[in-house]
Specification:
Shape: globular
Strand content: 5-15%
CATH superfamily: Decaprenyl diphosphate synthase-like
Structural class: alpha/beta
Number of strands: 6
Radius of gyration: 18 Å
Bound molecules: 3-methylbut-3-enyl trihydrogen diphosphate, magnesium ion
Strand order of the largest sheet: 3-4-2-1-5-6
């Protein structure tokens, strides 16, 4: 069990510029397992410890929002056995972990499509975790599940039409407020593990000005120290948002 208590941050990190929102593409589970001649699904299971340690590490660092990519709208293309495993695994992870996260003041929310192939019992379980933790303030833990960045934009546009927003009123704000979680600020930092240099349909709208950090570490090996290293890299970047350096 990872230690949920605050651990000292590395002295090299600037406590005054901890990213408010960190988003992570948890990638490399299959390769982690295959390297040890284990079935791919063992890699997903081993990712749980990485996830919990990272969540507590984020909490200890004072990160306010942590979004993790758990299942994409494209992951349905995988073999049925792996898809089934991922549905059951994410459901059981939530069931097993929601109480300890709740005890730490973590608010659990979800981003993604609720329609389609997600089993009803998984949705019910997600609703329960969300309900249990809805008043918590320490950190928001946003699980991107059956999530696609394009699907999110399509859903926002469909809502815009349903709301009969006149064409001359269509603006970034009108789209933004119809995304899955308009109350969550855009990610400051996006981390992708496993040495892949792509976005894979993650948070397409929200990451317009996020800093991107890529690491070779495979997700099951990722720990809070790797998160802190990514934050260190983030702090060495200069964010300009299209303007000039300050
Ligand atoms: C990430 O690990 C988990 C999910 C996409 C659900 P992968 O399963 O993509 O692992 P690799 O990329 O095949 O190693
Ligand atoms: C992105 O990883 C999705 C998740 C981590 C849930 P993938 O492994 O699905 O991405 P690609 O297929 O390598 O682009
Ligand atoms: Mg992958």
């Amino acid at each position: 069990m990872p230690d949920p208590r605050p651990t000292p941050l590395p002295a090299s990190l600037d406590k005054a510029s901890i990213p408010r929102h960190v988003a992570i593409v948890m990638d490399g589970n299959g390769r982690w397992a295959q390297r040890q001649n284990l079935p791919r699904t063992d890699g997903h299971a081993a990712g749980e410890e990485a996830l919990i340690d990272t969540a507590y590490g984020a909490l200890a660092a004072g990160i306010r929002y942590l979004t993790v990519y758990a299942f994409s709208t494209e992951n349905w293309r995988r073999p049925i056995d792996e898809v089934r495993f991922l549905m059951n695994f994410n459901e059981s992870l939530l069931k097993r972990r929601q109480h300890e996260l709740h005890a730490e003041g973590v608010r659990i929310v979800f981003s993604g499509r609720r329609t389609g192939r997600v089993p009803k019992r998984v949705l019910k379980n997600m609703d329960e975790a969300q309900e249990l933790t809805k008043k918590n303030k320490a950190m928001t833990f946003n699980m991107a599940f059956n999530y696609g960045g394009r699907a999110e934009i399509v859903d926002a546009v469909a809502q815009l039409v349903r709301d009969k927003v006149p064409v001359n009123k269509i603006s970034e704000k009108e789209i933004r407020t119809r995304l899955y979680h308009p109350e969550i600020p855009d990610p400051d930092l996006v981390v992708r593990t496993s040495g892949e240099f792509r976005i894979s349909n993650f948070l397409l709208w929200e990451l317009a000005y996020s800093e991107l950090v890529f690491t070779d570490v495979l997700w099951p090996d990722f720990r809070r120290e790797d998160l802190y290293e990514a934050i260190g890299e983030y702090q060495r970047r200069e964010r300009r948002f299209g303007g000039l350096e300050s």
